[in-house]
Protein: ABC transporter substrate-binding protein
Organism: Paenibacillus oryzisoli
Amino acid sequence: MQRKKITFTVLAAVVGLGTLLSACGNQEDVKQTASSSPQSESSKFANKIKISMFNQGTFNAAAPIPPREEDIQRQMLEKAMNIDLDMTIPQAGQATTKLNTLIAGGDIPDLLFLKSRSDLAQYYDQGVLADLTPYLDQFPELKKRFAQDSWDATSYQGKTIGIPGYDNVNGISRSFFIRNDWLKKLGMKVPTTPDELFEVMKAFTEKDPDGNGKNDTYGFIGGMNKEGNLQTYGFDSLMWMFGVNPPSAIDIKDNKPVFLFIDPKMKEALGYINKMMTAKVVDPDWVTMNTPDLLDQKLFKGKVGFMIRDARRLEPDYQQKMKEIGGEVPEWIVIPPMKGPYGDQIVERKSFQVNSWAISKKADKDKIIRILSMLEYMFTDKEAYPNFAYGIKGIHWDVVDGKIKNKTSELSKDMKEKYLWVDHYRMPRRGDDAEYFSFQNPKTAEAFANNQQYVGLTLAGNLLTADPSDSLAADRTRFINESLVKFMSGKDPLTNWDAFLKTLDTKFDMQKYKDTAVKQFKEAGLIK
C-alpha cells in the first residue's frame, strides 16, 4: 500500500539509514575547504548574506564556540555558501526557554534545529516557520538523502515544514552475544532457531561450560526496568523471534491494526520464555536486573552464556572490565538473531525520528534557498562529509592507505577536550557509518554492519498519540506489562490467557484503545 503524507499533530517517523560511506573512501585526499562540486561553489551565490542558526542539535552543548579562524567547519560552510554564519548553542535544558524568548522578541533565528515533532507543528501553527514545499524539488540530492518516512516526519497539514535532522542509530544496542568458547568446549554450533537456542542455553546451564566443577553458570540473563517494562532488557528481543513485542507494538496487516502484545503469537513467545524459566536456564537474578549497568556486571562476571547487549561491549575498555571483574576475557561473539517459526529475524526495529531543521517564516525566498543549499551541502557532499562527521583532517581523521580513517579514539584526553566544539557540526553523520563511531575492535564494526540487515521496519503503533480522554491508558499499560511478566515467569499459567484478554476488554476498555488506533491510522492514510 502506498503511504500518504502523515498530517496529524504529534507524530514521529522512521529515520532512513543511508549506506556506509564509500565514495570518499578511495580518494587520494579530502580537502578541508568547501567542496569543488558545482552545487557548493561560492560563485553560485554572488551576494553574501548572514544566516543565524539556533543549533540545539549539537552533540555537546557545553562546548564553547571557537573563533572563526579556528572553526574549520564554519569556514567551509561560509565559503561554500557565501554566507556569514552566526550560530547559537543553547545550554543543555534551556533550549526551549531560550528559543521561546527569541521568538517572543521577534528575533527568530533563520535556521532552527528542533528536537520534537510537536515543537515543529506548534511553531508552524504559531506562524513562526516557513512552508518549504515549493522549494524542495530544487534539491534532489537532499531529498534522496533521507527515506520517505523521515520526510513524512516533517509533513504537516499536507505541507513540508522541515528537513529531517540527524539519523538515529540502530543495529548496535540490541546485539545477540554468545560465549563462543563455551560453544566450542561443548561441541555445539551457533544457534539459528529458537529450539536450537534453547538447547544451547540448557547446555550452558547444566554442562559446566567454564570447567570449574560448580553449578554456577546460566544460559541467559535479562531484566526489566523499574517500571516493570520488559522492553530493551533482553526478553523483548526473544519475543521478536515470534514477531511480537510488548506495548506499544502495533502493526498494520490487511488494512487492520494488529496489536502484537495481545496477538496469539505473543502467547507462544511467553510460552517459550516460560519454558526457559522452568528449565532454570535463566539466571534467577533477572528479577533484580532493572538497569543496564546491572546487566553489564553479569556480562563482566562471565557466568552467563547468552545475552542481549550493546556491540560496543566488544571494545577494549569493556574487555578490560571483563578481565578485572571475571578474571578473563571470554570469547564473546555477536551472532545473527534466531529465525523464528514465522520467519521473523529481528535485532530491533528502526527508531523513529523526531528531530528536524526548520526555517523562519521571516526568511525571504533567497535566504530559504541559501539555507537549503547549505543543508544539502552538509548532508550530501562527499568531500565535505568527513569534516562534519568526524572532525578536523589531520587531527580527528586522515586518509590512510587510500581510505578515510577516523582517529578520534587515538587522541589524548587533552586533545579531545580541546576540540569538543566539533560536536556542533556532526549532525550529517550517517546512523550506519561504523567509521563515525571509531570502533577500536574490528569485531565491533563487523557486528554493527552485520546487524543492519536485521533491523526491522518501524511499527505503525509508534505514530499514535495519546488520547486525552482515555483515562484508563496508564492502568491498561501497567496491567499488560504485569500480566506478561506473570505469564513468562509462571506466576500465572498461560491457560489464563483468554481471561487476560477478557479483563483487558471489560476492565480496561481495550476497545476504546483499538478505536483510537483505527481513527488515527485512517487520518494518517495508513489504513482505508
